[in-house]
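HUMAN:
Just now I want nothing more than another pair of eyes on a protein record. I would be glad if you read both lines and explained how they fit together. I have put the entry right below:
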Amino acid sequence: SVAELLRGRYVVDEITVQETRLSIQRREDGSTNVGAIGGGPEENREVSPASDTDWVSVLEEWWGRIKQWHRRIPRGDDEEEGERAGAPPMERPGGFAEYSQRVDYPFAGRPDVVLRQVRVEGLEVEFEDAGAAVSLPRFTNGVVVLEEFSSKPSVQEKPSRFSALGTIAGARLELTGTLDFSGDDTHLELDVELAELPVSVIEAFLGKSLPVELVAGSIDLTSTVVLSESSLLVAPRLEFTGVQLVTKEGEERIAGLS
């Protein structure tokens, strides 16, 4: 609005992007081509080769980058203090500058840019993995909605919201969640729904982290995930259809059971 522009705030109500195709690659050294998430890699963190890990390591790396980025975000009070400190001194009669007084800005600490909604339709995501023995399925027919994102997430009025709907290997995937940077701790809440997902997809993405090998069948999943800097809460509900479990190579037990 004109009023927001006069205040030095740029508010975008809605952006729609159509027919978008992305390619996410995991290289032989375990790194990915999505290096912009949260900036540079975490300090003193070693990336394991792709042949020894799976996409769990990718999620851990991305979450670490987001937390690192959050720690670099100035708090609202710090930003306001900085803006006030940078204000020119007030002139007093007689030409002397008064450095003991500071100007209070009514919009100090507020986001300069606010995106109310970004909507991506017709999204297709291609996954490539140098450490995988098989080709990974694509995420297709995607609709992604991002809401309440700003240039200063630590002081915005509402948590950021996101949702994603699409299919992967013929299975319906739906994600909804919130991401809150307002406190000292990064807080993520995520609801996941998957219908009739072939276990081959789970093996392709997460097989090296599983205690067993999944060779047949499908899984329905409904889960809530709450993640912060210091804790992880997962409340899954799983339904298995025709799933077969076998021991991993070199193992005599399935998940520790004979």
